[in-house]
From TrEMBL:
This is Uroporphyrinogen decarboxylase. The lineage of its organism: Bacteria, Bacillati, Actinomycetota, Actinomycetes, Kitasatosporales. The keyword Lyase applies. Substrate binds at residues 38-42, 87, 162, 217, 331. Its EC number is 4.1.1.37. It is found in: Cytoplasm.
Amino acid sequence: MSANHSPSGQQPSATYESAFLKACRREPVPHTPVWFMRQAGRSLPEYLKVREGIPMLESCMRPELVAEITLQPVRRHNVDAAIYFSDIVVPLKAIGIDLDIKPGVGPVVENPIRSRADLAQLRDLTPEDVRYVTEAIGLLTAELGSTPLIGFAGAPFTLASYLVEGGPSKNHEHTKALMYGDPQLWADLLDRLAEITSAFLKVQIEAGASAVQLFDSWVGALAPADYRRSVMPASTKVFDAVASYGVPRIHFGVGTGELLGLMGEAGADVVGVDWRVPLDEAARRVGPGKALQGNLDPAVLFSSPEAVQTKTREVLDAAAGLEGHVFNLGHGVLPTTDPDALTRLVEYVHTQTAR
Ligand SMILES: O=C(O)CCc1c2[nH]c(c1CC(=O)O)Cc1[nH]c(c(CC(=O)O)c1CCC(=O)O)Cc1[nH]c(c(CC(=O)O)c1CCC(=O)O)Cc1[nH]c(c(CCC(=O)O)c1CC(=O)O)C2
């Protein structure tokens, strides 16, 4: 168990007592904590500078660079948590899947997985496969002080979508064809991915991550009945696999208004909400006993400072009665966002919610 955790009977650490982890645990907070999905990356000139000439996947495997990029938004914006700089396809690359992240496209898989024989590509992930992750998190926890580090992974459905389609997809045709057409192969594929994802999250927690977020970015493409039958067992398996560590488990997807209750039921402590559902309504859908994370539309940051404040106020008002609220955008920071707008947003949320 890492020094960030406070197993019962031990003195709570400053990290354990941070506003972010308190909000995840639904405890009273000094102010609403804020972090942003994709807070590191292309919105920051200092990121573009250190990434110059280094391909995305390679940059994810250099511990010093990962630590530097992860710290950049913490230094600049005064956010309440860091998110480990990586990508959802990194564990797949680590077990030898032939894939690349192509600039302007995203992850592209050379040999898509569409048959039972293709499943053999998915071997177990061991800590030795991702030594750079353990090393980078060691560097980070030393630098971060009381600021928690969030580890993350892609959820089985979203990873399956990339593997089956061979790259980003709008309609997920091949993925759904497999899910509806060969339910047994589909279940076996998701189960394999759940094993890999669980192992990857464990590495991050054991190295010192204080919370984890499972990104099921594309799962909003499914109806609730299909989610429950074909996806939820694998996501539940991942959450169960890391439950004993006692770190908050966040679950996020886009366009998941109809799935929020089930995504909580899968085992999340914190349910991430995109901007389409107000947080008070999301709380009704999720039910008691969970914190919520969200949910300013990332595109709002392109409007005037006054408009950003008005829209932020709406989010905070909708969150007023929640058991626990972590402020975030409804999806990742868009690459051309003005970083100063993000810094101002953090300060506004902190001052508006100071207790
Ligand atoms: O649109 C698509 O289908 C491909 C998306 C895409 C992915 N990796 C990618 C790209 C290309 C791109 O962003 O331009 C490739 C990718 N991943 C990342 C970056 C850096 C950046 O966004 O500027 C980039 C762009 C790389 C570059 O060209 O510089 C890093 C990344 N991916 C991710 C994260 C975790 C996070 O969001 O906080 C993070 C770390 C951010 C941080 O440390 O602050 C997670 C990720 N990657 C990915 C997804 C799937 C859903 C999505 O599209 O957003 C998701 C989950 C999600 O954001 O919902 C796949």
